[in-house]
Amino acid sequence: MLELIMILAVVAVLFVLIVSRRPADFQVVRSAVMAAPAPLVFEQVNNLKKWDAWSPWAKLDPNAHNAFEGPEAGVGAVMRWAGNNKIGEGSMTIVDSLPGEFIRFKLAFLKPFKATNTAEFTFKAEGDQTLVTWRMFGSNNFIGKAMSLFMNCDAMVGGQFEQGLTAMKAIVEAA
Fold first, then answer.
1. Which residues of the chain have pLDDT under 70?
2. I want to staple 137 with a disulfide (CB 3.0 to 4.6 A). Which of 11, 23, 27, 41 is the partner?
3. Which domains does the chain have, with CATH numbers?
C-alpha cells in the first residue's frame, strides 16, 4: 500500500512539473481570401446580429439563447450567449473597430470554464478580394495548461475558425 501511495505521489509531482513548464500563452490564427470588398466582409463581423448566419458555434447549438446589448455594431456592442455543453456560456464585446480594417473583441467565457481571451479580425483589401484573418489569443491558467496536454486547442478551435470563415465567404460572395 505504501508503494502505491509513493508511486501516485511521484506521478502527481511529475504531472505538476510537466504542466507548470507548459507555455501559458496561446494563439489560434486562420485566414481566408474572399471575393468581396472589405467593407462588406467587415460588416459581417462588426454587426453581432449577423454572426448567427456564419458562426460555427450557431450550428453546434441552434437552440442557444443570444442576447444583445449596446449599439447594433461597433465599439460597445455586446453579445451574450448560453447554450449546450458544446458552446457553453459567455459574452463577447467589441472593444475596437476600425471600419473595413480591424475589429477586436474581449471574450469572457463563463462555462464550461472561466477564461478571458482576445479575438481579432483583420480585413486586407487585395484588388477586388479581401484577406480576412481571425485570431484568438490569451493565457492559460494551470487547468488550461493541463488540458493542453490532452487537447490541441489550435486544431480544435482553428477548425471552427475555418468553418466560420468558409460560411462567411459563401455569404459575402453571394451578395
1. 15-16, 19, 142-143, 145-146, 148-152, 155
2. 27
3. 25-174 (3.30.530.20)
